[in-house]
Specification:
By secondary structure, the protein is α+β, with helices and mostly antiparallel strands. About 25% of the residues lie in helices and about 25% in strands. It is built from three helices and six strands; from the N terminus they run E-H-E-E-H-E-H-E-E. The protein binds tetrahydrodeoxyuridine.
């Protein structure tokens, strides 16, 4: 038997096509790229969450001279959320980046480890997390939930 995995996502050619709420969040994500600590890659990543209680939580990637110690923006954000808003579900996360050595014109997607971390957060509160992806300008991609980014995922249910 053959099966197929597919999912639906939205593409917008520019930020001005988004809802007001999503526009504001993506603008904040873009502005927040400057808070990244990236002396080794010069690749600033920013992830910003809108919580269901209206709070905004920010994260950026934090690098280290011992390279593997560095942490992606998404996981910095999720650890912060779990520390400062531990009982609140995430509504939307906007992820942007500023490549100081090149262009930042097309959306980039979270790495595999961050997808697993996003899924954990989504499962914890049993509520979809909308994910907005975009560079400093140009195209925007919206994915309706984190699970779609990680087919054949591993979760707590697999250990029952
Ligand atoms: N990075 C993130 O912050 N998020 C991702 O999903 C991909 C990569 C960071 C890690 C490192 O600091 C820099 O981008 C280059 O890989």
């Amino acid at each position: 038997m053959e099966k197929e995995y597919s999912f639906t996502y939205q593409i917008f050619t520019d930020i001005d096509q988004l809802s007001e709420e999503d526009t504001l969040l993506l603008q904040k994500a873009r502005a927040n790229t400057q808070n990244a600590y990236v002396p080794y890659s010069s690749f600033q990543v920013s992830a910003i969450a809108l919580m269901h209680n209206g709070a905004i939580v920010k994260g950026t990637n934090q690098e280290n001279a011992s390279y593997p110690v560095g942490i992606c923006a998404e996981r910095v954000l999720l650890s912060t959320i779990s520390s400062v808003q531990p009982n609140v579900a995430v509504k939307t996360i906007a992820i942007s980046y500023h490549n100081l050595n090149g262009e930042s014109l097309r959306p980039v997607a979270p790495c595999g480890m961050c997808r697993q971390a996003l899924l954990e957060q989504e499962n914890r509160f049993k509520q979809p997390i909308k994910i907005i992806l975009s560079g400093m300008e140009g195209e925007v991609i919206i994915v309706e939930n984190a699970r779609q980014l990680l087919p054949f995922n591993f979760s707590a249910e697999d250990m029952l």
